[in-house]
Specification:
Number of strands: 2
Strand order of the largest sheet: 1-2
Shape: globular
Strand content: under 5%
Structural class: mainly alpha
Bound molecules: protoporphyrin IX containing FE
Helix content: 55-70%
Length: 321
């Protein structure tokens, strides 16, 4: 037998005996097991059962699938942000995982920010699936079957925010600076209020019931881990790195302006009637809540000039100085 194979079998025998297990039994398992198929690896059959329209309108499938695609992209974003939050994992060349780094390196920070922008760009560019890619008449019918749910209840969207910035940056002026007070005054909690009664919308109350505990805990644990904090922990020289600053600003623009404008455009296209705005499934006063120039959420305000902040959200930002 090839010496390389024999060496590998010896290494495997050492690996298993170190944990008191028997290599012979594992080899039996290997002999008996079937080759892995793509469909099993990707869980394709399960994935394709996850689209369950509530009506027979064909375009409802587009609506569901595009939301799912977006949620998967959000998952990719969180996968990268988490590594900034935790300083990145140390994986040796032989695949051994040695846990989290003690300190975040500039190289890793830059690489992760690049990936975040790539994902956000794909989402922004593909949003016309929602703007031009659905029949409005069908949309206005099938949306009634999904009341009172709304993309507003996307917990991954909120996790990206909490993992990216100090909570005070996404909280309204009315907080006394501590985490819980900032949490209770997050801009989206203030946005989902019924104008007539001043009460929280049912969509918000339902979301809070499901996720408040988890998001509060995440907010607490991100105080010294969020992207903005990690940036401030860099050395003075690294903090001035132009490439990193550009990438961070780009992410802020992509998430807090460009994606929100693309999304707002889909709301206008599908929910604006000839004479008036149509009430949204989540019940917010969406035409004054959604536009980024009113929300003015900025993850890294210290990186922007007064002028840039003043003009925040007034138009798309394509190039960055
Ligand atoms: C035709 C397509 C869409 C329309 C008409 C629409 C409409 C709306 C409206 C009106 C709101 C405000 C909350 C409410 O009252 O319901 C909202 C919020 C939201 N939607 Fe959509 N949406 C669309 C597609 C999407 C997609 C594909 C996603 C992806 C997950 C999404 C994610 C969100 C998020 C994250 C919020 C909260 C935004 C914030 O707090 O600034 N929406 N949407």
């Amino acid at each position: 037998m090839d010496k390389k194979i024999i060496d590998k079998i010896n290494l495997l025998a050492q690996k298993y005996s170190a944990t008191g297990q028997n290599l012979d039994s594992y080899l039996d398992g290997l002999l008996l097991s079937d080759f892995l198929g793509y469909w099993d690896y990707i869980n394709l059959d399960t994935l394709l059962t996850l689209q369950k329209p509530k009506t027979d309108f064909p375009d409802e499938k587009i609506f569901i699938i595009y939301h799912q695609i977006t949620e998967l992209y959000f998952k990719l974003c969180i996968n990268e942000i988490e590594q900034i939050n935790e300083n990145g994992r140390i994986i040796k060349d032989d695949g051994q995982d040695l846990g989290w780094n003690k300190k975040l390196s500039l190289e890793l920070f830059i690489e992760k920010m690049k990936r975040l922008n790539r994902y956000m760009k794909n989402l922004i560019e593909s949003f016309d699936v929602m703007i031009d890619g659905m029949d409005k008449r069908e949309f206005l019918k099938f949306r009634m079957a999904l009341l009172p749910s709304s993309g507003f209840q996307s917990v991954q969207f909120r996790k990206i925010e909490i993992r990216s910035t100090e909570i005070k940056n996404i909280s309204s002026g009315k907080n006394n600076g501590d985490i819980l007070s900032c949490y209770d005054n997050l801009y989206w909690k203030k946005g989902a209020i019924e104008l007539s009664t001043g009460k929280k919308t049912y969509t918000l109350r339902q979301f809070e019931r499901k996720y408040d505990l988890e998001l509060r805990e995440l907010s607490r644990s991100m105080v010294t881990k969020n992207i903005s904090y990690k940036y401030n922990q860099l050395s003075e020289t690294d903090k001035e790195n132009k490439h990193l600053i550009k990438l961070m600003k780009e992410f802020d623009y992509n998430f807090n302006i460009n994606w929100k404008l693309a999304h707002y455009k889909s709301a206008v296209k599908n929910l604006k009637g000839k004479k008036s705005f149509i009430e949204a499934t989540g019940g917010t006063n969406w035409e004054s809540y959604l536009p980024p120039k009113f929300q003015k959420t900025i993850f890294f305000p210290q990186l922007f000039s007064d002028e840039e902040i003043k003009n925040w959200g007034k138009s798309w930002v394509e190039s960055i100085k």
